[in-house]
Amino acid sequence: MQNATVPQPQRLNGPGLSQSPTFRIYERPAELNFVIMSWSVPEVCVLTYHAALLAPPPSLPSSCPTIMPAALAICAHPDDIEILMGGTLLQLARRGWDLHYVNLCDGSRGSTTMSRQECAAVRLEEAKRSCEVLGAKFYPPIYSDMEAVYTTENLQKVTAIVRASKASIVLTHSPSDYMEDHEISCRLAVSAAFSHGMPNLESIPPVESYYEPVTVYHAQPVGNRTPLGELVVPHFYVDSTDLIEKKIEALACHASQKEWLDVSQGMDSYLETTRQLSREVGRMSRQFEHAEGWRRHLHWGFCNSDDDPLRLALRDVIIESDPTGASA
């Protein structure tokens, strides 16, 4: 795990190169498109894999450093990432993706026995340990529980994280979920992905804007239902069956939440409840024992109409949703 406090993006030096091209690879279902752009900085060559290709094409210089594609998980509270998208992140990690991890809330109000300060400190360390299990880069929270509001300042902070991660995939909450912290975190994540290429939107701290496509995906809402109790059917399912124990291992790092969830939400065992919700999504898929569901955000302003890097990267462990709306 690396503590990523929103550093400036780094450019890599490629020794012995007389020019400084950037190779960006976009894989489409039907073809590979190579886009080569020149940089003014000498001796720089960066190869970005947008489709998790594991070896550079043989025509590229052997001295060209490789940057694997990045996925950024943005959720509200410590443990939300693990519950909603831990399996998907682990599938991406298997394929060489760089993972980035941020809980926007500090978790400080998630206890009946600790003070806010003590709770925030405990939950910060729990989140860091979980991040190590997932193999992700950690970013610190930006506000307290129940203080998630859509403001320009908060947008600037989340935009800094998106820019620093150089993510081509942003994973976040469902737009409609059971509580406000989740919905506001989703809105901030979506807007930050939209604005990461706007030079006139200054981030906090300052991170240089850039424009590369970013595709946003929404996880299932907690309980797989809207706040009105309606079942949400995802666009597609990611198999997490053989990763469920690793996902639970990451979630178990948030040990302080057992007491809080028992008292506040009637989750007798948050680990077992997570297994049950994972099985429900698996039943919805009609194929997997455990699964996580995803909906792709509309592409306008974010990426090309046919950009779908999550489906593409995990195509061997994905099944499309039944168009009739199969339910558990």
Explain what this protein looks like in three dimensions.
It is globular, with a radius of gyration of 20 Å. The protein has a single domain (70-320), classed as Rossmann fold (3-Layer(aba) Sandwich), CATH 3.40.50.10320. The model is unreliable at 7-60 (pLDDT under 50). The longest helix is centred in the middle third of the chain and has 19 residues, at 116-134. The chain has helices at residues 80-94, 116-134, 152-165, 180-195, 244-252, 257-265, 270-285, 309-313, and strands spanning 2-3, 21-27, 32-38, 46-49, 66-67, 70-75, 98-103, 136-139, 169-172, 215-219, 236-239, 291-296, 318-320. The strands form two sheets. A nine-stranded mixed sheet has the order 1-8-7-6-9-10-12-11-13, sandwiched between helices. A four-stranded mixed sheet has the order 3-2-4-5, with no helix packed on it. With 328 residues, the protein is an alpha/beta fold. The protein has eight helices and 13 strands. It comes from Stieleria varia. Its EC number is 4.2.1.83. Keywords: Lyase. It is an enzyme of class 4 (lyase). InterPro entries: GlcNAc_PI_deacetylase-related (IPR003737), LmbE-like_dom_sf (IPR024078).
